[in-house]
Design a protein that fits this description.
Bound molecules: N-(iminomethyl)-L-glutamic acid, fe (iii) ion
Structural class: alpha/beta
Oligomer: single chain
Length: about 400
């Protein structure tokens, strides 16, 4: 028995995501799981459970991998509740409010930004999220993009440079110059703190030529590619992402058959963000169409003060099942293993020996309850790196 080992015992339903026997969730019944050094050391039947220093009795509950939220904009100041209220009274979402948040973010102190990220990260952890990607994108000048990423890097290794979120007001009549800034001094200042680069490829934000140029600069600086694409209407983003080998194209709300075909023959994950459709009162993406075509689908919150101010992966799972024609099993897989695939991570999103011991003990006997009991706080306990939180 290794010192510091921890046994999670009497697990009624263990979701491993090991893909065994044609069951993507790799469900085991009456299981136990041993944690050592922050990793899953052993999984097996409860009656074969080894001795350990400490023990958590799951009492027959379901245990699943911690959620992997692969798309979140947490570095910002202020909120846009009035914009939300206006939308619920009939206004359309255009992304125009991003500039409001840019103004508030530039005016905020480092400590204020850090406190907001910390508050949202803690909120996520309470709801079972153990891995989160965090984007910049509300600074939109060299100093504020770099500090957004510096602060994000205090909370996650999956930081994303989104200097190309929109063209800021001071560059409104010279977007080419702004693209030059993003590819030049802004990327140079941001890259030391970033793992990924992202562009909002959409009418009113960045067109295909600008998107391609920015992503190429990011790749040359060693960053991996991800993309906001086809959120507000059809466009070139999804196919461009596939062509450039993006880890993920995110939103995917308006897709043509050619977009779906391109994704189906690729390693690029389609990340769906139903919180954005909820909060902008827009039609949801059709996850069924993507899944039936063989596309790898992830679910994420898109947590941001404009289009989706939720930090809750359970809420996104419930929306995906009810509104996007996903089965509960597909939605749980997409919120765990799918998110890991979107971040090209193999150490999270699964509970197999050697994986990080990030797990959720539900207040329920099955993963089905996440969608079956929407809005109910079902996360009884979270282990992050093997540490009970
Ligand atoms: O993913 N679409 C672009 N960016 C965010 C929204 C940002 C905002 O409205 O502040 C999104 O939905
Ligand atoms: Fe987003």
């Amino acid at each position: 028995m290794r010192r510091g080992s921890l046994l999670v015992d009497h697990i009624g339903e263990l979701v491993t995501n090991d893909g065994r026997d044609g069951d993507p969730l790799g469900v085991r019944r009456d299981a136990a799981l041993l944690v050592e050094d922050g990793q899953v050391a052993w999984i097996g039947s409860a009656r074969d459970a080894p001795a350990a220093d400490r023990r958590i009795d799951a009492g027959g509950a379901a245990v699943l991998p911690g959620f992997v939220d692969s798309h979140a904009h947490l570095v910002f100041a202020g909120d846009r509740a009035a914009e939300f209220a206006a939308r619920m009274a009939g206004e359309r979402y255009t992304g125009g409010g991003i500039r409001t948040t840019v103004g508030a973010t530039r005016a905020a102190s480092d400590d204020d930004l850090r406190a907001t990220v910390g508050r949202l990260r803690a909120e996520m952890l309470r709801q079972g999220t153990t891995t989160v990607e965090i984007k910049s994108g509300y600074g939109l000048n060299v100093a504020d993009e770099a500090r957004s990423l510096r602060i994000a890097a205090e909370f996650t290794g999956d930081t994303t440079f989104l200097g190309a979120h929109v063209v800021p007001a001071e560059y409104a009549d010279r977007p080419d110059d702004y693209v030059g800034l993003v590819c030049g001094p802004m990327l140079a200042a941001a890259a030391p703190y970033a793992r990924w680069i992202d562009v909002f490829c959409e009418r009113g934000a960045f067109d295909a030529d600008h998107t391609r140029a920015i992503l190429a600069c990011g790749q040359a600086a060693g960053l991996g590619v991800r993309l906001h694409a086809n959120q507000l209407g059809p466009g070139p983003g999804v196919r461009l992402g596939v062509e450039l080998g993006a880890a993920s194209v995110d939103h995917c709300t308006h897709l043509t058959d050619a977009d779906v075909d391109a994704l189906a023959g690729s390693e690029t994950v389609a990340t769906l963000l139903p919180g954005a459709e909820f909060s902008t009162r827009s039609p949801y993406p059709d996850a069924r169409r993507l899944l039936d075509a063989g596309v790898t689908v992830a679910l994420a919150t898109d947590c941001n003060p404009g289009s989706s101010y939720t930090s809750s992966m359970p809420f996104c799972v419930a929306l995906a099942v009810r509104e996007m024609r996903m089965t509960p099993a597909e939605a749980v897989w997409a919120a765990t293993a799918g998110g890991a695939a979107a971040l090209r991570r193999t150490d999270v999103g699964r509970l197999t020996p050697g994986a990080r011991a990030d797990l959720i003990i539900l207040d329920a006997p099955s993963h089905l309850h996440l969608a079956y009991r929407p809005g109910v706080p079902l996360i009884r306990q979270v282990l992050h790196n093997g540490v009970p939180r």
